[in-house]
Design a protein that fits this description.
With 177 residues, the protein is of the alpha/beta class. It has helices at 3-6, 24-33, 78-81, 96-100, 102-112, 136-146, 161-176, and strands at residues 10-17, 48-55, 58-65, 86-92, 118-124, 149-152. The chain has a six-stranded mixed beta sheet with strand order 2-3-1-4-5-6, sandwiched between helices. A hairpin with a 2-residue loop joins strand 2 and strand 3 (58-65). The longest helix is centred in the C-terminal third of the chain and has 16 residues, at 161-176. The protein is globular and about 45 Å long. The two termini are 21 Å apart. The mean pLDDT is 91. It binds guanosine-5'-diphosphate and magnesium ion (MG). Belongs to the small GTPase superfamily. Rab family. It comes from Cucurbita maxima (Pumpkin). It is found in: Endomembrane system.
Length: 177
């Protein structure tokens, strides 16, 4: 066998879910392209973006799926979830209703994908300090109760964005290897 043939290839499908305008598309844009759109419309969403990462010297491709805004109509299809091994469930720390929706998003995730899908709860827009409506401790408590990882991010100032995706990819890798 050549070195090439011995190298295992990993492709992990990861989905972004959460209410409209919580920053899902911008988290992906920041992570994959280091870009940010101050006034993004839901139409900027790509179907998915593949990002190469290295974990323990192994090359991993994270195929990250973004909605094209259909979450506004409660019409994220089962095809979106099919085969997902990871999920980022996102809310906006400056809008409590988006946090109240998390339970529903988790139900939908577990209806359409494997129960063991590695999931991180993401409180985005943590740069909006004055507008905060959901405390860090509340996010943490919900994540603990549901057995999820937890992180607060800002797609605007880049805080923890790479960390959020890496946490999921590393855990999937650990489970599979
Ligand atoms: P999506 O509908 O969940 O994909 O949300 P978008 O990524 O389209 O973002 C919705 C709006 O929130 C846009 O105007 C973004 O510029 C803004 N936004 C996204 N992430 C952040 C963030 O971390 N901080 C702030 N202040 N605004 C953000
Ligand atoms: Mg979007």
């Amino acid at each position: 066998y050549s070195e090439e043939e011995k190298t295992e290839d990993y492709l992990f499908k990861i989905v972004l879910i959460g209410d409209s305008a919580v920053g899902k598309s911008n988290l992906l844009a920041r992570f994959a392209r280091d870009e940010f759109y101050p006034n993004s419309k839901s139409t900027i969403g790509v179907e998915f973006q593949t990002q190469k990462m290295e974990i323990n010297g192994k090359e991993i491709k994270a195929q990250i799926w973004d909605t094209a805004g259909q979450e506004r109509f409660r019409a994220v299809t089962s095809a979106y979830y099919r085969g997902a091994v990871g999920a980022l469930v996102v809310y906006d720390i400056s809008r409590r209703p988006t946090f109240d929706s998390i339970g529903r998003w988790l139900n939908e995730l577990h209806t359409h994908s494997d129960m063991n899908v590695v999931t991180i709860l993401v409180g985005n827009k943590c740069d909006l300090k004055d507008g905060r409506e959901v405390g860090t401790a509340e996010g943490k408590a919900l994540a603990e109760a549901q057995g999820l990882f937890f992180i607060e991010t800002s797609a605007l100032d880049s805080s923890n964005v790479t960390n959020a995706f890496q946490t999921v990819v590393k855990e999937i890798y650990n489970i599979l290897s």
